Amino acid sequence: MAAKTPIYMDNAATTRCDPRVVEAMLPYFTEMYGNSSSRNHAFGWKAEEAVDLAREQAAALIGANAKEIIWTSGATESNNLAIKGAAHMYAKAPEGQPNRGHIITAVHEHKAVLDPCKRLQREGFDVTFLEPKADGVITAEMVKAAMRPDTILVSIMWANNEIGTINEVPEIGRLCHEREVVFHTDATQWVGKMPTDVERDHIDLLSWSGHKIYGPKGVGALFVRRRKPRVRLEAILDGGGHERGMRSGTLNVTGIVGFGKACELCKAEMDRDGERLLRLRRRLETELAKRIEVTQVNGHADRRLPHICNISFGFVEGESLLMGIKDIACSSGSACTSASLEPSYVLKSLGVGDELAHSSLRLSLGRWTTDEEVEHAVEKITKAVLHLRTMSPLYDLHKEGIDISKIQWQTH
Ligand SMILES: *Cc1c(COP(=O)(O)O)cnc(C)c1O
Predict the structure, then answer these.
(1) Same-domain status, 203 and 181
(2) In the sheet where 331-332 sits, what is the strand order?
(3) One pLDDT digit (tens) per residue for the chain, 412 residues
(4) Cα–Cα distance for residue pair 125/32, rounded to 1 Å
């Protein structure tokens, strides 16, 4: 059966909301529309009951206690609250002095981690941005080497959203606990896809988001450890003191109900879904590599999430490649910043050259990706790349066996 187009292969950007999630949410718009903080009537109680259930479902997915879940508007907010909240709480500076303390993160984290860290840097904190090797993995050794007596916080994502590589999170967590340093992980791409246990894996703070796990947009969660050690955060929003004072504001009850349901479904279906996604991703990568020479799968060969494939094609121009595969919704290795096309900073950090970064695709699969869609994508991409190469003089030279990296270009 032919695949219906356009084909969605951008599940790392966002996912379709599971119809079972939507169904769970609906009554909370129209019938059970109470404010979960209303303590003196049934509308409030119903809403609170639903939020409590969602808290249990979210906690169960990561091996936490329901009391350790703080609702937010998404992973961006969770990361901000975790990083700024911990830095300000654990800052080591005498009264009236500027903030001090050392923070460790990595150059290829999501902007929702990098930008809070850069803001803290401007406030006076010292930040080390670790650089990965070509495989993209941040190891416990790298973190250990960067640790200082004044290190207060380590923030390393569980798995990268562009290349899918998996960092040594349990090992980094153990190291942080030995050194009594707070450990935060942006687990937005990991949770719901891979088994997670904040106890076993020594996590203090963990961020994730509804819309990356087949739930609604605009709702997220932050796990905040309550014992061994009890982690404290300075709030960003002041107000009614909701969420143990850490995040004021009326709760997004419908969103939270959807988030909880999405977590429950992921927990129940993770093993089966994971196997299927890994099979599809491997098929995509091997078929593309078989049909198109000079391709490169970016990131570690095995330490990668089942659903993300990042692949570069030599001797094609990125923009033209995207034009040629218009019915496949995916991301490219170029980030559109205002008018200019910047190569992805993530690929750059692995040492991928600008040219190759521009001609990279991130294909991310999801719960509804089919074999037919993978087949269609392979055919479309192959056709586009081979066509573009017929117009590439550099590719002709390459075929003649000339190493183009050694050519002395004439300069003016
Ligand atoms: C999507 C994503 C975010 C941002 O999540 P929002 O809920 O959209 O704010 C943060 N980190 C990673 C790794 C992501 O993939």
Answers:
(1) yes
(2) 295-297, 308-313, 360-364, 331-332
(3) 678 899 999 999 999 999 999 999 999 999 999 999 999 999 999 999 999 999 999 999 999 999 999 999 999 999 999 999 999 999 976 666 767 899 999 999 999 999 999 999 999 999 999 999 999 999 999 999 999 999 999 999 999 999 999 999 999 999 999 999 999 999 999 999 999 999 999 999 999 999 999 999 999 999 999 999 999 999 999 999 999 999 999 999 999 999 999 999 999 999 999 999 999 999 999 999 999 998 999 999 999 999 999 999 999 988 889 999 999 999 988 766 555 678 999 999 999 999 899 999 999 999 999 999 999 999 999 999 999 999 888 888 888 888 777 666 665 5
(4) 46
Q: Would the CB of 298 count as within 6 Å of ligand 1?
A: no
- Parent domain of 172: 19-266
Q: Which residue's alpha carbon is at the smallest distance from atom 5 of ligand 1?
A: 75
CATH number of the domain within which 163 lies = 3.40.640.10
Atom of ligand 1 nearest to the CA of 217: 7
Query: Are residues 217 and 282 both part of a single domain?
Result: no
Q: What is the CATH number of the domain that holds 305?
A: 3.90.1150.10
Residue 24 lies in a domain: yes
Q: Are residues 207 and 308 in the same domain?
A: no
109 lines ligand 1 (CB under 6 A): no
Cα gap 323→291, rounded to integer Å: 20
Sheet holding 182-186, edge to edge: 69-72, 220-224, 205-209, 182-186, 151-155, 102-106, 126-130
